[in-house]
Every structure is written in structure tokens, then in C-alpha cells.
Amino acid sequence: QMQDSKPQEQQKAILLDLFRTRNIATITIMSLLLWFFTSVGYFGLSLSTPNWHGNAYINCFLSAVTEVPAYVIAWLLLRSLPRRYSLSGTLFLGGGVVLFVQLVPADFNMLSVGLVMVGKFGITAAFSMLYVYNVELYPTLVRNMAVGATSTASRLGSIIAPYFVYLGETSCISC
């Protein structure tokens, strides 16, 4: 018997399919927020590098060098630990350390730069893990659309990040 030469009809997915069921809608909303805020943190730290204490050129060099081990460690964590634990661990590392920078006295310049580098390490590792983790959360039918939507949220975060850097440079609101 000859089979029909027509290709089978594929189901069409639309953007609203990311919000059809409660489970997928929760995953989508959390992923959009996670990508947005991780992008704000990553680009905020990257763009504020010249504003840190010390030599701006050395700070930019250290910021770039920090990304290489972050990607290697992220790869090793993804191979050895569950995705949820590796992603949440790097996010807590990056966010927690950056929050502690505010508690460092102004005299300890090297300590504050070191803490920011550890925070950049954590945010960079988490940002690279998001691509792998996000793909595995969605069913095949909506996977490409979900990655596109979350990547769009990430780009919106990268658009807003320079304004957060600018807020850190101003000393008062009414100026």
C-alpha cells in the first residue's frame, strides 16, 4: 500500500497557549519574571563596572574574567545537580552577595569589589542556566514560543538596566 504523500497536519500554537492551563500559566509568569530580573541584575552589574571603587579598567577586566569560570561552573552544576537546585543556588549566591555589599564600610574598597565580583559570578551562572532550564519546563508544542517570550522579557530587563545604574549614581531624588 502506498501511504498518503501529504504531510500530517501539525497543531498550531498561539501565545495564549502559554496561559491556557493553570500550571503552564504559573510556569510562564514565573519564567517571565525570573528572566526579567536576572537580566536586570546581569546587565546592571555589567554596566556599573566603571562606577566601582578602584581603577575602572581593572574592574572591567575582572568583570569579564569572572564570566569564564561562571560558565564553566554552571556547566558542571547542570551536569551534576538537579536544575532547580543549581539555578536557585546561583541566584541566591548572586543576589545575596550583592545585597551584602551595602553593609561593607566605605573604607574596604577591595572587599566591596570582591563581593560584587562574586555576585556577578552568581548572576552570570544563573543567566546561562536559565536557557537550559527554561527549555525543559514546557511541552514541545509551545517550547519555542515560551523561549521567545521569556527571551523578550529578558531583553526588556536589559533595556531597563541602565536606568538602575543611573539611579545608583544620583544622590537625591529632587536634584
Number of alpha- plus pi-helical segments = 5
Helical content class:
over 70%
pLDDT averaged residue by residue: 86
Largest sheet: none
How many DSSP E strands?
Answer: 0
Determine Rg (CA atoms, Å).
20 Å
**Sheet/helix structural class:** mainly alpha
In whole angstroms, the N-to-C terminal distance is 81 Å
**Which percent range describes the beta-strand content?**
under 5%
Uncertain spans: none
Order of helices and strands: HHHHH
Shape descriptor: elongated
Report on this structure.
The chain is mainly alpha-helical and 175 residues long. The protein has 5 helices and no strands. It has helices at 22-47, 56-80, 83-100, 109-137, 143-169. Helix 1 (22-47) runs parallel beside helix 5 (143-169) and helix 4 runs antiparallel to helix 5 (143-169). The model has no long low-confidence stretch (mean pLDDT 86).
List the helices and strands and how they pair.
Blueprint: H1 22-47, H2 56-80, H3 83-100, H4 109-137, H5 143-169
Helix pairs in contact: 1-4, 1-5, 2-4, 3-4, 4-5
Report a brief summary of the structure.
This protein is mostly helical.
Task: Quickly list its features.
mainly alpha, 175 residues
